[in-house]
Amino acid sequence: MRSPKDFFRPLAVGAPAPVREVPFRPSRMIHFFDPGNEKMAAKIPAIAPTVDVLLGNLEDAVAADRKEAARSGLVNIAKTTDFGDTQLWTRVNSLDSPWALDDLITLVTEIGDKLDVIMVPKVEGAEDIHYVDRLLAQLEAKARIERPILVHAILETATGVANVEEIAGASPRMQGISLGPADLAASRRMKTTRVGGGHPGYLVREDPNPESAAGEARATFQQDLWHYTIARMVDACAAHGILPYYGPFGDIRDTVACEDQFRNAFLLGCVGAWSLHPVQIEIAKRVFSPAPADVAWARKVIAAMGDGTGAVMIDGKMQDDATYKQCQVVAQLADALAARDPELADAYAAAEKE
Ligand SMILES: CC(=O)SCCNC(=O)CCNC(=O)[C@H](O)C(C)(C)COP(=O)(O)OP(=O)(O)OC[C@H]1O[C@@H](n2cnc3c(N)ncnc32)[C@H](O)[C@@H]1OP(=O)(O)O
Ligand SMILES: O=CC(=O)O
Ligand SMILES: [Mg+2]
Question: Is residue 156 lining ligand 2, measured as CB closer than 6 Å?
Answer without folding.
Answer: yes
